[in-house]
Design brief:
single chain; alpha/beta; Rossmann fold; eight-stranded mixed β-sheet; 12 strands; globular; binds S-adenosylmethionine; binds zinc ion
């Protein structure tokens, strides 16, 4: 694990360095954060947050769904776009990393890059820490000042997760790359009604660009749309991994699943936007 001036102490802002065993992070003033047994660091000590973290059940459903490869075409395209825009990237931050699935795909072609997986859900980061050894997995709220030094990262990833444009700009080095993935209106359209899913707030590309206008220049907008063949277990997972899971009538979902054919064709549709920090 390289010891770069990458992380910033959430208390005093000075640099946060790992010990040789990567079991704790400490700043020169002595603020210290110990790794959880599962390898992530919880920097959000004290003070609650008003945002709901993904639960263990949501994370488990997402892990199974992603492991089945249904979003791999998008992840592969994301990795290709990032590698093309930032071929020599040495540091990558995934803001709202979840289980680290996309971060893992993006790191593959960027050999030796240092990575930070940031998420408010410790359940998600347990998976990320296990899947991506050597990555800093940090429990943190993306709406707060990020625990990273100014101009310390080359790439920020933001996949279906909240965005904090001024903070993304601050931590990116000038010329750094921000990759944003959002679902399109037709994403999962065939099962949205049956699964009683909350409508995905499909963000218009223009809205994403406008929110990033101060400080970022759009480089590329790509669309990735393809059919998925989903069995009942896949449909159950895709429902349970999203925010709809919080309000779900589980018996109703099981009745819906029982009435489905063995395999359904469901649209996956994403917008991938690449920006350069000015
Ligand atoms: C839909 S998931 C996407 C996760 C991952 N990028 C993926 O696609 O698998 C949204 C993620 O954002 C995280 N999240 C929600 N609010 C957050 C916040 N305020 N700060 C940091 N992470 C947050 C959730 O815990 C969850 O892991
Ligand atoms: Zn400190």
């Amino acid at each position: 694990m390289p010891s770069l001036p990458l992380l910033a102490c959430p208390v005093c802002g000075d640099s946060l360095e790992p010990d040789s065993g990567f079991r704790s992070l400490t700043c020169p003033s002595g603020h210290r954060y110990d790794a959880a047994r599962q390898g992530y660091f919880n920097l959000l000590t004290g003070g609650g947050t008003k945002f709901q973290a993904d639960t263990a059940a949501m994370v488990q459903a997402r892990t199974h769904f992603l492991a089945a490869g249904h979003y791999l075409p998008m992840a592969t395209e994301l990795a290709r776009l990032v590698a093309a825009a930032a071929p020599g990237a040495g540091t990558v931050l995934d803001a709202g990393a979840g289980t680290g699935y996309y971060l893992g795909e993006v790191l593959r072609p960027l050999s030796g890059a240092t990575a930070v997986a940031l998420d408010i859900s410790k359940f998600a980061l347990r998976r990320a820490a296990r899947a991506l050894p050597g990555t800093y997995a940090l429990v943190w709220d993306v709406w707060r000042r990020l625990p990273l030094r100014d101009a310390s990262v080359d790439v920020v990833l933001n996949v279906f997760a909240p965005r904090n444009p001024p903070e993304f700009r601050r931590v990116l080095a000038p010329g750094g790359i921000l990759a944003v993935v959002t679902p399109r209106p037709e994403h999962l359209q065939e099962i949205r009604a049956e699964a009683a899913m909350l409508g995905i707030a499909a963000e218009k590309e223009e809205r994403v660009s406008a929110s990033l206008a101060p400080g970022f220049t759009p480089l590329h907008t790509g669309r990735c749309t393809y059919p998925m063949q989903l069995g009942r277990a896949d449909v159950r997972n895709v429902v349970l991994m999203g925010p709809s899971a919080r309000h779900l009538d589980e018996a109703g979902l099981e009745r819906t699943l029982a009435a489905l054919p063995d395999a359904v064709t469901v649209t996956a549709s994403f917008t991938l936007q690449i920006f350069r920090a000015d």
